[in-house]
Amino acid sequence: MGAIARALANSITTGGVVQASAINNTSVSSVTALPSGVDTGDLVLISSQTASASASIEFTSGLDSTYDSYVFKFINIHPATDDVYFQFNLSTDGGSNYNVTKTTTSFEAYHNESDSATNLRYATANDLAQSTSDQRLIDLIPTGSGENDMCASGYLQLSNPSSTTYVKHFIASVQANVAGSSNYSWISHTAGYGNTTSAVNAIIFRTSSGNIDDGIISLYGVKKS
Fold it and tell me: Does any domain span residue 124?
């Protein structure tokens, strides 16, 4: 019996089971690459940023023609200031100016912990009509006195930002727990378009006042079908 065959035979129990000691790279951390045939999903992480008393979070690279669609995921966005809006704007000059003209629509729903208040309504204060202002994504995310667990999470999808033919459509959904006489589950759905045929190549996220105290925003590319 050759050395390789003997080593293999010694690694198999009498019941025909390969012993764990014979298997290398048994942990995920040991895997350095996946075969080309392994499906890694449709979302490709491009970059991720963590806020720490940040005036804003900007992505000035990664938005290009590599993908037709991009997704930003918001995880536990926590403002430093009470009663502010989490919002964004777009740039066509690499972030020198965030002033793309937008027309948008928005609606929201809420329900409180005491089960005494519910609503589904159009959010007139959040929509824009040919405006270069920041687009609000969620109403009033207060930290609240003693409410340091308050935060917001959600996503924004931006379609074909590199196009020089079409406007730039986006869809966003953000959920927050909001302080009040009784704390609320509050979700806001926003959609619209940047009314420009110039390529959008940067985006900024910020609150309407103060800093983003904590939270993660990650940028993903959506694989082309």
Answer: yes
